Every structure is written in structure tokens, then in C-alpha cells.
């Protein structure tokens, strides 16, 4: 066990997270095929201290529903950024909700992010000089609210390193 009691080895470097932006998205389920649930993401508003953008169609979420009920996310979309350039985003993630929470979502209700395990790992590609930092960081998306066709993620970049 490490000196800090965390179980990490002495000298382990824990990541430092910095708020990057929020995504406000609208998404609706289209259909299920076996264990796949396909969602149409109709809009994404991206806003943060150093960035603004809006999604450009098409955008979608392909969710694999595991036998234990866990959702494996596979999301892809492009964003038109505030400098006129585009960024492509792809992320995977895990959503783990109780059967009661799934029922709430299906009935049109919402679930707050702190009541469920729902995280993602967005990665970006862009030619933007202003927003080149998107392609130089790992990000962690934390669900703030899910349901009623809305998805709100707060996205944090893993800070540190030489850049």
C-alpha cells in the first residue's frame, strides 16, 4: 500500500483533471437489434471557457447492452467550432443504471449524474490551431443528467505534461 493509504505504489502519479467544457445533447433511441441499441444524436451544444461549438450531422450512439444491463457506449460526431474549423469526436464509455433507473428513463424521466455510473473517454481530431489542445489531451466525460431525450456531460481534460 502507498504512503497515502490509497493502495497505489509510492511515486504513482494520479491524474489532475481540469474542466474543459459541457455538452448539452439531444438524443433519441431509433431501434434495437439484438444487444445493440442505436440512438440518433440530433444536436450537441459544446460550451466552455475556451471553446464553443455545435454538432454537424450525422451523429450517433451505438450502445451495446451487456447481459448484466451495463451499456457500452460508442459515440461519433463532428463539431463546428467557434473558429470555423471542425473537430471529429469519438468516445467510448460505460453506463451502469439500476433497473428502476432504466424504467424512469423509458417513462420519460431524468436521472441525475451523481445517482448513476456513467462516464466516457472522448478523443478528438482537428486541424484547428486555436483548438489543437483537443487532440493533445485525454478527456473524461461525466454525466450530469440523462433522460427525457437530453444528455448533459461535463467534460474534463487530464492536465499535466510538458504541453
TrEMBL record:
<dbReference type="InterPro" id="IPR020915">
    <property type="entry name" value="UPF0311"/>
</dbReference>
<protein>
    <submittedName>
        <fullName>Uncharacterized protein homolog of yveG B.subtilis</fullName>
    </submittedName>
</protein>
<dbReference type="Pfam" id="PF11578">
    <property type="entry name" value="DUF3237"/>
</dbReference>
